[in-house]
Amino acid sequence: MKKYLIYTYGCQMNARDSETIAGILDSLGYAPTENEREADLILFNTCSVRENPERKIYGKVMQLRQLKEEKPGLLIGICGCMPQQEIERERIQSKHPEVDLVFGTHNISRLPELLEEAKDGRIIEVWSEGREDAALPARRQDDLKAFVNIMYGCNNFCSYCIVPYTRGREKSREPEAILEEVQELAASGYKEITLLGQNVNSYGQGLGREIDFAELLRLVNEVEGIERIRFTTSHPKDVSDRLIEAMATLPKVCEHLHLPLQAGSDRILAEMNRRYTKAQYLDLVAKIRRQIPQIALSTDLIVGFPTETEEEFLETLEMVRQVEYESAFMFAYSPRVGTKAAAMSGQVPEEVKRNRLNRLIAVQNEVSAKVSKRYLGKTCEVLVEGASPKDPGELTGRTRTNKTVIFPLPHGEISSWKGKLVPVKITRALTWTLHGVLEEEAYETGAEGGSRSGYSGNGSLQ
Ligand code: SAH
Ligand code: SF4
Ligand code: F3S
What we know:
By secondary structure, the chain is of the alpha/beta class. The protein has helices at residues 12-27, 51-70, 86-95, 111-118, 163-167, 175-187, 213-221, 241-249, 266-271, 278-291, 310-323, 350-373, 440-446, and strands at residues 3-8, 31-32, 41-46, 75-80, 101-103, 123-125, 145-149, 151-152, 171-172, 192-196, 228-232, 256-258, 296-303, 327-332, 379-387, 394-398, 404-408, 421-429, 433-438. It folds into three domains: 3-125, Methylthiotransferase, N-terminal domain (Rossmann fold, 3-Layer(aba) Sandwich), CATH 3.40.50.12160; 145-373, pyruvate-formate lyase- activating enzyme, CATH 3.80.30; 379-445, CATH 2.40.50.140. A six-stranded parallel sheet has the order 2-1-3-4-5-6, with helices on both faces. A five-stranded mixed beta barrel has the order 15-16-17-19-18. A three-stranded parallel sheet has the order 7-10-11, sandwiched between helices. β4 (75-80), α3 (86-95) and β5 (101-103) form a beta-alpha-beta unit. α7 (213-221) runs parallel beside α8 (241-249). The chain is globular, with a radius of gyration of 23 Å. Bound molecules: S-adenosyl-L-homocysteine, iron/sulfur cluster (SF4) and FE3-S4 cluster. Iron/sulfur cluster (SF4) binds at residues 154, 156-158, 161, 163-164, 198-199, 235.
């Protein structure tokens, strides 16, 4: 039996695409392996959002030259966002003879044919649009939590970002197709769904129907068996009152919002084409917190955008302190060929970017530690994922706000707890992980079988 190995980089869209690629390969009779030496096909599902990961991917591909010499039948493929750019396709063509197969984000469904063709020599097929919403098979990475695409592409053209070029124009999936996927997941025992899109708040535009993201949340909330709904990413300019209301009222929608700020200075935000100001962002945060007081916020931040001054960077630090994010993804600006910002004058030197990034990380760590302490003494609803990787005598899971919680196995087998929603009292709060104990009483009186009744709705629950 032929075996495959997929290396996945980048965002959840790529993680979800890799599941589809794996599903297609399974249907062709391949089996997965984690050992390069056993593999007949090694695929790199790539990300273009910053330069560093791109370089690393090429380095890793080159390392496989040796293996390929030893095993001439080995096929090496590059897919995902990198080949969507002409400049990368040219680079692969001229500098990477070890690569046999190149395809893009829109033609994953063509994999069976492409594999056949690649046997007779290198094949490069990358479409710039036209991703079909066909029901393709998937090998899911997890059996409790699943990603579901609700839209593809992005129309926002933030001036630093390559995604609109690699993923094409924004396109929403039909709600029926989304609900069918969620229902199938529920029937297979999945408890948590993360709805995926680069800008989920504009869901429904272009479908020519009366539906928006808030309404989609309502529909998904009705699917029996699903206990938790998350989504990513929300562009601050598009967070509507209807969405906040849906989050506040739909019981399965978790109290966590990833709300990328990117920068704290109005001038930089305008240069980034983000279409909100610092004041508008803060107003939005205040409005969300009024209606969903226990909400956890996380964010994405970029330092060293072209022309960013020290003072403007300090405004980003100030916003981090003021908003008090639980966590943040923080990046040094990386110029991407073809984007507006890459052509701007006033690029910030690497060492300045690195210095700002380190200072930003230090401040965010302080804030994360402080926010984490607020969980102490509270009782959180935890979706149990299984044994803690560090100690098989302990269980691990997540709060509705997406914090990891570790607590001792109360009794019985680990497997009998997996997938259950249980109340855990937090006794120790580290920056990224909480420790606690099961509140047996609350669990036994109300939560048999993982139902939320009995202890949900308690104001102290997160
Ligand atoms: N659609 C999402 C995120 C897409 S990319 C959103 O709008 O928030 C994920 C993150 O990568 C971005 O939020 C941004 O913080 C970062 N990013 C994108 N392009 C970048 C670049 N050229 N340099 C550094 N970071 C970048
Ligand atoms: Fe990139 Fe902006 Fe689109 Fe996010 S919203 S994918 S940052 S262009
Ligand atoms: Fe990267 Fe493509 Fe996602 S560029 S961040 S994998 S959409």
